[in-house]
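User: My instructor asked us to take a sequence, write out its structure as tokens, and then describe one feature of it. I'm not sure where to start. Here is the sequence I was given:
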Amino acid sequence: MSAKPFLTQYAHERTALVQSVLPKAAAILVSRRRVLSGIRWSNNLIVTAAEAIGGAEHVDIRLESDELGAEVVATDLTTDVAVLRLDASASEPTNAAKAVSTGDVPQAPSSTGVVQPPATGAVAQAPSSGGGTAAAALRVGEPVVIIGRNLRGPAAIWGSVQLAGPAWSSRRGGRIDQRLELDLAFDSSFEGGAVVDMGGNVVAMAVPGPYHRVLGIPTQTIETVLAKVSQFGRLPKPYIGIRLQPLWLDDDTRAKLGRKSRGIAAVGGVDAGSPAEQAHLELGDLLLTVDGEPAESVNGLAQRIANINPGQTITLEVLRGGKPLTINVQVGERPHR
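Assistant: Let's start with the prediction itself. The structure tokens for your sequence are:
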């Protein structure tokens, strides 16, 4: 029996999957020479890679049939997620894109049997908790396609998941909900593009990683950033107002304190009028725990604080004059300079 009908159907399935997600693809012109991709998350919001956006405040966007301007609302370098808001002249998406944005299932032709919509979109409308109808976590070996757009038109790259690990922290301290490394060809125009599974779900955003790796920033991480933007109208920077200095403990002191690490964070300064000053943190305090978890290093403590929303209260256990104290600090927002 000839395999041609099967191969023909397979080709149609792949094409239909890509076509269903193309309305979500955006080309972002950051400068005259720099073009990257983005994901149309809702009618007026675009998500893309923060590092590639840099310090831009306004960019040009090319969609299926529109060329629009967009304001850079937030750039979270800790997770590499940037949020852009299209100018008011943005038109409604096509029917396929509108279905994607609202979570409705577009009707695929019966001959293809494809395509579930990207399970993103509705998050941008106002997700108070960062939740959403997320697709299942990707698995090693699972096929994926990255869908992007450049100035010549839409583009797609097929590949597979090379590594699928647990949540991890980026080198800038951001929590990424799943470690995803992708095995595929990649160029800079696909940075910020949509990583799509075989159900047609947008499951991640593609970004370049170290050592020429291609990483996926999961939709759950993107939704967390969008939830903060929805709540505050921007991306607030948590702030308690202390400057930290690393100290090294000798073996006897480390054993007395019951610490695994030789390092400990000491308060080297307290900003006037800051949440730390109001909570009566003092110069020389040694930070033992944050919300009951050991504070093993300056970088670790800074990363923990960076992932807390302003308005939340954290409990610090400190050592002052050889005596442990418990201090509650309400996290504020970093003042604008």
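For the description part of your assignment, you could build on this observation: The chain has seven helices and 22 strands. Try explaining in your own words what that tells you about the chain.
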